[in-house]
């Protein structure tokens, strides 16, 4: 992983990745950091816009409020989901994974409907937790949608997020944007869990915030509520993928991107 300060050693990266399984940074710490007062405010981009997700829910977690604002402003927003998130509940058998994949597609459709009249998502169906082995396919799919829609901006998970699928999606989007000469903005998802305010592992000099109107924030909250499979316990004694303390990072009055 590289930041504005250079590349991290394998030991630094391993230590940071281990924090994903820890309790994480409290949202109150991020509120105290007052990021909207410290980072530049960005204007809504023109369109069309393509939003890339590694799994159903990434796009809403990282950029859903701004997606709602864009649609409300009459800007065309297209989404592409590279996997179906079928591994979020562990290594189940094939039928169970297929059932979860179908459920997560339905949840995404419902969530996007809460954000506004968006185009139907493009599903690629690459293997969850193995996206890094299919980056060429992902790159081609993202490049194809960028060209088809004439997008002027692409949003994708940050390639330093310390989740292998998120990072693979970010790298694929970066290559696709390079080949189509499309501007790329990246959104963090798990970074809010493992990082700290002023964390040198985060390229803050390239970060900016997009303030959300109350309407856009309410639409995002309604969209996030559609992902029941990620918000409810995955089994007896198994916590949800997105417990309340994690979800709090994504219900702010602003969204953050790395340019």
Can I get a quick summary?
The chain has 259 residues and is α/β, with parallel strands linked by helices. It contains 11 helices and 9 strands.
Give the class from helix and strand content and strand pairing.
Answer: alpha/beta
User: What is the global morphology?
Assistant: globular
The biggest sheet, with number of strands, parallel, antiparallel or mixed sense and barrel status, is: 5 strands, parallel
- For the CA atoms, what is the radius of gyration? 17 Å
Proportion of residues in β-strands: 15-25%
Helix amount: 40-55%
Walkthrough of the structure:
The chain is of the alpha/beta class and 259 residues long. 43% of the residues lie in helices and 16% in strands. It contains 11 helices and 9 strands. It has helices at residues 10-18, 27-33, 35-38, 58-72, 94-115, 135-149, 164-180, 191-194, 214-224, 228-231, 244-247; strands at 2-3, 6-7, 49-53, 77-83, 122-126, 153-157, 183-187, 207-211, 254-258. The strands form 3 sheets. It has a 5-stranded parallel beta sheet, with helices on both faces. It has a two-stranded antiparallel ribbon with strand order 1-2. Strand 1 (2-3) and strand 2 form a beta hairpin. Helix 5 runs antiparallel to helix 9. It is globular, with a radius of gyration of 17 Å. The two termini are 16 Å apart.
């Amino acid at each position: 992983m590289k930041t504005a300060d250079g590349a991290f050693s394998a030991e630094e990266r391993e230590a940071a990745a281990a924090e994903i399984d820890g309790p994480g940074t409290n949202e109150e710490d991020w509120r105290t950091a007052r990021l909207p007062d410290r980072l530049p405010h960005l204007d809504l981009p023109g369109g069309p816009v393509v939003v890339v997700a590694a799994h159903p829910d990434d796009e809403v977690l990282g950029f859903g409020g701004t997606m709602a604002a864009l649609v409300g402003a009459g800007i065309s927003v297209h989404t592409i989901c590279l996997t179906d998130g079928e591994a979020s509940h562990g290594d189940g058998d094939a039928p169970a994974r297929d059932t979860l994949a179908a459920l997560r597609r339905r949840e995404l459709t419902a969530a996007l409907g809460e954000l506004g009249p968006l185009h139907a998502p493009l599903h690629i169906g690459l293997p969850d937790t193995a996206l890094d082995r299919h980056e060429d396919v992902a790159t081609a799919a993202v490049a194809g949608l960028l060209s088809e829609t004439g997008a002027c901006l692409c949003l994708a998970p940050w390639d330093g997020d310390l989740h292998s699928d998120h990072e693979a999606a970010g790298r694929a989007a970066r290559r696709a944007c390079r080949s189509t000469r499309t501007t790329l903005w990246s959104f963090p998802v798990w970074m809010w869990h493992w990082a700290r305010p002023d964390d040198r592992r985060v390229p803050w000099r390239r970060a900016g915030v997009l303030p959300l109107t109350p309407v856009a924030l309410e639409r995002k909250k309604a969209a996030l509520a559609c992902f029941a499979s990620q918000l409810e316990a995955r089994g007896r004694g198994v916590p949800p993928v997105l417990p309340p303390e994690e979800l709090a990072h994504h219900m702010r009055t602003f969204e953050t991107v790395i340019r």
